[in-house]
From TrEMBL:
Protein name (record): 10 kDa heat shock protein, mitochondrial
GO cellular component labels: mitochondrial matrix
Keywords: Chaperone, Stress response
Gene3D superfamilies xref list: GroES chaperonin (2.30.33.40)
Coiled-coil features, chain-numbered ranges: none
């Protein structure tokens, strides 16, 4: 466990998102195979980069989401990130996120 990841800090306008768990059982208790269950399109923002570089000068453009926000994600895309806690994390650019949920 010496190589365990303690903290992830995304670069520039990238955002690390934890996808919400998909229910794999029905109300009656029947187990569904993973292939038949669609991907969850919502997630929780875990970490946010400093923002894209400002083309007009020094500094970065601010990011529209912050840690703890719920967001709507596209069905496909993003970069899957494997961590030690067996949860599904995906790295997206800010422009790939569809909406912020309140």
């Amino acid at each position: 466990m010496a190589n365990a990841i303690k903290k992830v800090i995304p670069m520039l306008d990238r955002i690390l998102i934890q996808r919400f768990e998909v229910k794999t059982t029905t109300a009656g208790g029947i187990l569904l195979p993973e292939e038949s269950v669609p991907k969850e399109m919502q997630g929780l923002v875990v970490a946010v980069g400093p923002g894209a570089r400002n083309p007009a000068g020094a500094g970065h453009l601010s990011v529209a989401v912050k840690e703890g926000d719920r967001v709507l994600l596209p069905k496909y895309g993003g970069t899957k990130v494997d961590m030690d806690d067996k949860r599904e994390y995906v790295l997206f650019r800010e422009s790939d996120i569809l909406a912020k949920l309140e």
